[in-house]
Design brief:
Distance between the termini: 49 Å
Strand order of the largest sheet: 4-3-2-1-5
Order of helices and strands: HHEEEEEH
Structural class: alpha+beta
Shape: globular
Radius of gyration: 16 Å
Largest sheet: 5 strands, antiparallel
């Protein structure tokens, strides 16, 4: 069974996602990282949507590895959970490492109650990403 799971992971690991979410990778995603995820809207569609948020948890379970992002959209907390090896995930980009904002927990569920600390840099990073996107289109 483990061999089948390893084969599935190798087949789904098209752009280095496994290394990005590895525990041993110091440059990888950790809880507290600000991550931008671009997903396809449907299995046969070419349009995509983006979501940027603070990674509040990572669940590492082989092929079922997933991570949760949280952001505040129009003063309402929004959480999105993504499966790491989903074929609908187009790209995963780390915008900011957690060492600039100190987090000492593996699961940041407390950010649901006290959101001010983590979500301040999100707006500036989102605006910068949109500017970069428009520059590359021109």
């Amino acid at each position: 069974m483990e061999a089948i799971t390893q084969q599935q992971i190798e087949k789904s690991n098209i752009d280095g996602r496994r290394e990005l979410f590895s525990k041993t990778n110091a440059q990888g995603v950790k809880p507290g990282s600000i991550v931008l995820v671009e997903t396809l809207n449907g299995p046969g569609e070419t349009t995509s949507s983006t979501f940027m948020g603070v990674c509040i948890s990572i669940r590492r379970k082989g092929i079922d590895t997933n991570f949760t992002l949280r952001n505040i959209v129009m003063r309402i907390g929004v959480e999105q959970r993504y499966s790491l090896y989903s074929p609908l995930l187009k790209s995963i980009k780390v915008m900011q490492k957690p060492n600039e904002i100190k987090f000492r927990r593996a699961k940041l569920w407390y950010l649901r109650d006290q959101p001010g600390k983590a979500f301040q840099p999100l707006q500036a990073l989102w605006k910068q990403e949109q500017l970069d996107k428009t520059k590359t289109k021109k």
